[in-house]
């Protein structure tokens, strides 16, 4: 349910459970964490999904069984955030719940116009993963973060762009080519330049 393709240093990771809106199981999360560990060898990473939804968050059955509060979410987002290469979330559709952690941990986020963004933890009675509100607030500010997390707002791609949550809105047919184009300079650069620029941006 996780596809990985290495194109000469460009790693493309695809959530491939479209019949379940790419909702994430514990096994999928562990596999993603393992891939993120191995991605130290990548020159650039693109994360995307199959179908019309990036991810609906946790698989509901597993969420009720404890996945919603499992530390695997935090481990995964931490691994992605620590990667020395350029990381891009190419959001092929809606981003919801705990799946936010993966996208927020990436360096860049681009999305299709149809994408919606929501994180309904308050309604479901869970706290968000600890790093998610911090990373979200760093991008869009504390008030807008509360607007999503506490106000329960589902925002559009246009709102996400104006908030600063995503960097670009891209038509579905152009999504992956746009993501790959953003990786061109990173693929040509040496690892020490990757490290240096990311360190200067922190």
Question: Can you put this structure into words, describing what you see?
Answer:
Helix content is 44%, strand content 20%. The strands form 2 sheets. A 6-stranded mixed beta sheet has the order 1-2-3-5-7-10, sandwiched between helices. It has a 4-stranded mixed beta sheet with strand order 4-6-8-9. The protein is an alpha/beta fold and 202 residues long. A hairpin with a 2-residue loop joins β1 and β2. The chain starts with a strand and ends with a helix. It has a single domain, classed as 2-enoyl-CoA Hydratase, Chain A, domain 1 (Alpha-Beta Complex). The mean pLDDT is 95.
CATH class: Alpha Beta
Listing every helix as H and every strand as E from the N terminus to the C terminus, the arrangement reads EEHEEHHEEHEEHHHEHEHHH
What is the CATH topology descriptor? 2-enoyl-CoA Hydratase, Chain A, domain 1
Poorly predicted runs = none
Helix count, DSSP H or I runs of 4 or more residues: 11
Helix content class = 40-55%
Oligomer: single chain
Task: Please provide the count of β strands.
Answer: 10
CATH architecture: Alpha-Beta Complex
CATH H-level homologous superfamily name: 2-enoyl-CoA Hydratase, Chain A, domain 1
Beta content: 15-25%
Domains, number:
1
pLDDT averaged over residues:
95
**Main β-sheet: number of strands, strand sense, barrel status?**
6 strands, mixed
Order of the strands making up the biggest sheet: 1-2-3-5-7-10
> How far from one another are the termini?
33 Å
From the helix content, strand content and strand pairing, which structural class follows? alpha/beta
- The general outline is globular
Rg on CA atoms, Å: 16 Å
